[in-house]
Amino acid sequence: MRSSMPPGSGRTLPHLLFERRLWGRGVGWVAGADEAGRGPLAGPVVAAAVVFPPDIPVETLRGVDDSKRLRAPERQRLAVAVRRAAVAWCVAEVDAADIDRVNILVASQEAMRRALAGLPLPVDHALVDGLANPRLHLPQTALVGGDGVCLSIAAASVLAKVHRDALMVAFDRQYPGYDFARHKGYPTAAHHAALQRLGPSPLHRRSFRYSSRSPGVDAGA
User: Fold this and answer.
1) In the chain, N or C: fewer CB atoms in 10 Å?
2) Are the beta carbons of 200 and 87 closer than 8 angstroms?
3) Mean pLDDT confidence for 123-150
4) Which of left, alpha, beta for 139 (phi over 0: left; psi -120 to 50: alpha)?
5) Does 4 have pLDDT greater than 50?
6) Burial of 211: CB neighbours in 10 Å, binned 0-12, 13-18, 19+
7) Helix (H) / strand (E) containing 35
8) pTM, entire model
9) Under 8 Å between Cβ of 123 and 51
10) Where are the alpha helices (DSSP H) in 120-177?
């Protein structure tokens, strides 16, 4: 297990360097994993895992990047491309009740574990965004800022974000008044105003601060 910073000091587009290093050492299936939804006040945290074949034509994934750098229509289009190009992919969720029970860090790690475990093939090595995940029982490389430099991780970030956004749009119909379809559960002024008016819904993370000054992080952080 090791941790690495992204190479170079400037902006680096996601590439297959990390995957190719592993393939070159004889490692078989390499999965990229990332999560979406650590900061919101409501909704699940979602993780995705993506496995690409060693002979993948990189041009089929042109534009795949850290999901935070992409607009919603781009993410949706690229999510289709990722699912078509991948040998395997999986998305997993941890809901608000479990986030409150274990805290957002552990919930994010668990979502990533579930996504990797849900892949329909045995993963030999995981490339994970951020710090090493102690809940994974397989070799891993942790890449700080990995969603901006590693193509498998960036692809996972796109799938996780698209899946979570779709969930929040559906929840908007189930819990009207909170405007989940617009802010996706993040701590916007409109979201805080809805909380003051309606109180928390079953989707809200009770361990998070609901003050308008809250940055939307775990109350114990």
Assistant:
1) C
2) no
3) 97
4) beta
5) no
6) exposed
7) strand 30-36
8) 0.90
9) yes
10) 151-174
Q: What is the end-to-end Cα distance of the chain in Å, rounded?
A: 25
Residue 79 Cα distances to 12, 15, 63, 93, 124, angstroms: 21, 17, 11, 17, 24
Contact criterion met (CB below 8 Å) for 88 and 51: yes
Instruction: Return the ∠ at Cα 145 (arms to 104 and 159), rounded to 5°.
Output: 65
pLDDT tens for 57-73 read 989 999 999 999 999 99
Residue 12: its pLDDT value, please?
Answer: 73
The superfamily CATH assigns to domain 11-198 is Ribonuclease H-like superfamily/Ribonuclease H (3.30.420.10)
In the sheet that holds 125-129, the strands lie side by side as: 2-4, 140-143, 125-129, 30-36, 45-51, 88-94
What's residue 10's pLDDT? 58
Q: Distance between CA 59 and CA 110 in Å, rounded?
A: 32
